[in-house]
Amino acid sequence: MPGGVTLNPDEVDITFALGDGDRFKLQLPFWGSAMDGVVDVDFAIAMGKLGGVAVLNLDGVHTRYEDSRPVIEKIAAADKASINALLKEIYREPVKPRLIADRIKTIKDAGVLCAVSTVPAKAAERAEVVQKAGADVLVVQGTVLTARHSSRSYHQLSFEDLVRGSEIPVIVGNCVHYETALELMETGISGILVGVGPGAACTTRGVLGVGVPQVTATADVAAARDEHMRRGGMRVAVITDGGMRIGADVCKAFASGADAVMIGTPLAGAEESASKGFNWGMATPDPNLPRGTRIHVGTKATLKEILLGPARVDDGSQNFAGALRSALGVCGARDIAEFQHVEMVIAPSITSEGKSLQNAQHVGMGKG
């Protein structure tokens, strides 16, 4: 809801910092999701130069193939009937540790921050390689992660041990529950990803029937963050991951308690994206139970236009930073921390109220 005071959007602060100090600080609180169709080395460099950070998937094609471009093109060109089988075939190629180091070094040589993502099963063995190569943050990502995992067939990853042995911040996810988030934060992690199944390319909610709406999930995890700080812990960054399509969605995530957002499909539409308009989830190539699909987004704009504008369209799909700044301004929030305390209302009709002509003519807010 608008506040009782309005501010100049150019004078609000939307920067993001991870942990204490300025070791990992972003001018834009936007993270590019670790999806192969979006983030390759070139995209990570481009996003870093604009003030955000894009996460490179260490379990993806860019660390399996010396030249991943033909592989991405093959995935983009496949028809719907053969895409799942093709993805399984392509991802059978093993990940090469040498390529992990090479990709990280190339990103760092460009003078930008480097974030990488790994599945939990490989996190402990990759941590040293990742740090030596110069990565700035390690993301440990699965469909759902908890601080307590039970298995008789393999060794459980200890987040306490991983954090203790890491010189760089560790972010884990995904999570949607207050108590689970609080337990994860108590392991010493620096950030937590929020969301199960909201992404445009994700089918987890259809395959497993598991998930929580993003505003509710973000608010619950943010409440855990606040309780963790009340108990004397450091501020753990809450990063809403997935389900955001336009500027309004991004702004709602921050108002719900997010410190940053991780976006995938909107960035797949950037001219700089790895696939030039396609996206598929990290669990899509799973050989036993795929929980994602390949979607076609099309090329919409440059990465700069999507993140910083100026927007050439009227539907909120460009200039996310401008939308966030303006939202802070009209709500009277000087920074993201203040914006997290604005009043929110549940209003299903807010996007359709008074918009009958836009809906009928499929313009503006009626395009969706």
Structural key phrases:
368 residues, alpha/beta, TIM Barrel, two-stranded antiparallel sheet, 15 helices, 12% strand, globular
In short:
By secondary structure, the protein is an alpha/beta fold.
Descriptive account of the structure:
It is a single chain. By secondary structure, the chain is of the alpha/beta class. It is 35% helix and 12% strand. It is built from 15 helices and 12 strands. The protein has an 8-stranded parallel β-barrel with strand order 3-4-5-6-7-8-9-10, surrounded by 5 helices.
- The secondary-structure element order is EEEHEHHHEHEHEHEHHEHEHEEHHHH
Number of domains: 1
Between the first and last Cα atoms, what is the distance in angstroms?
23 Å
CATH superfamily: Aldolase class I
Residues in helix, %: 25-40%
Q: What is the radius of gyration computed over CA atoms, rounded to a whole number of angstroms?
A: 20 Å
Number of strands: 12
Tell me, rounded to a whole number, the average pLDDT: 92
In CATH terms, what is the fold-level topology? TIM Barrel
Annotate the secondary structure layout:
Layout: E1 16-17, E2 25-26, E3 30-32, H1 41-50, E4 53-57, H2 69-77, H3 83-90, H4 97-109, E5 115-118, H5 120-133, E6 137-141, H6 159-164, E7 170-175, H7 178-185, E8 191-194, H8 204-207, H9 214-230, E9 237-241, H10 247-255, E10 260-263, H11 265-268, E11 278-280, E12 294-296, H12 303-307, H13 320-330, H14 336-339, H15 356-361
Parallel strand pairs: 3-4, 3-10, 4-5, 5-6, 6-7, 7-8, 8-9, 9-10
Antiparallel strand pairs: 1-2, 11-12
